[in-house]
Amino acid sequence: MFDGLALRPWLTLTVSTEGERGLLGIALDPDFSRNHYVYIVYTSANPQPLWRLARYRDQDNQGVDPTILKEIAFDPSCAFHFSGNLAFGPDGQLYFTIGDLCLGNPAQYLEHPAGKMHRLNADGTVPADNPLYDGDGPNLDSVFAYGFRNTFAFVFDPFTHHIFGVENGPQCNDELNLIRPGRNYGWPWDFRHDTCEYADLPQFEKPLWVWKTPVAPAGIAVYSGPMFPEWNGSILVCAWNTGELYRFQLNSAHTTVVGASAYTLTGASCQIGPWIAPDGAVWFASSEGVYRLYRLWRNLPYLLPAPYD
Fold it and tell me: Which of these, 153, 140, 297, 301, lies nearest to 220 by C-alpha position?
């Protein structure tokens, strides 16, 4: 993309697009200026649909030399819960999420890839210091954390290097999570479908925040920039269902939510994103377009109810 104009597609993929399938995530290699690597997650088309993590190389503004780093076959009848967000961490490793692939219980099985956050070296091999690595044992060694239903997005906190993720629940209980290595986030065993209440079992990590009515959180960022200095260190979330921008204030250790509010945006909808630009502007998107938030004017937030405790 140059000056807002796409001269030609960087890459054309044939993908399966039913439901939440499609092109799901993209990340640049931390050493992109030297190796020109771009990583993407997508669902391949027939005959057998696959969840796929691939690496391409940028050459003259075109994606070339595809390398498949990971692929997972899933039930062709499943059209939802693929997640697919990916990002490089401060440690230089590649992190990505896979939803429960419509399966539920395997999110709790350490030998199964679904319902997990994974961590790989940039070449697709598994780091031996992964928290659940057991070599020749039964665990899938790439697993970093587990017990997720559909974590659409996650972000590395630039202040603490914590990982924050947004989890899409079923008919209730969307979550904001602090994702810690090796921890279990409960899906589906810590959730009572008949009452929408948590079983509150000690072996499961508790969310930082719960939306009892689903908002479909679809993106997350930690604000750092000069444009809204009072927001520095806050978590920002866009939600597909409401189009609102949610702000979560954190304690000094960035381990607890101490304040929460929501902004209803006039003439725009915060369904995807946000992303923080170098000048501190907040960018986000919807099905209608791409937007830039550069000031707040007559748009006071309303306070959200208390989180799950």
Answer: 153
CATH code, domain with 67: 2.120.10.30
The pLDDT tens digits of the residues spanning 82-109 come to 999 999 999 999 999 999 999 999 999 9
Closest CA to 94 of 44, 144, 35: 144
Catalytic residue among 36, 81, 193, 254, which? 81
Secondary element (H or E) of residue 236: strand 235-239
Q: Is residue 309 part of a domain?
A: no
149 within 8 A of 204, measured Cβ to Cβ: no
pLDDT digits (tens, 9 = 90+) for 168-195: 998 889 999 999 999 999 999 987 666 6
The distance of Cα 172 from the centroid of its chain, to the nearest Å, equals 19
Task: Specify whether 81 is catalytic.
Answer: yes
Structural domain count of the chain: 1
Owning domain of residue 114 = 1-150
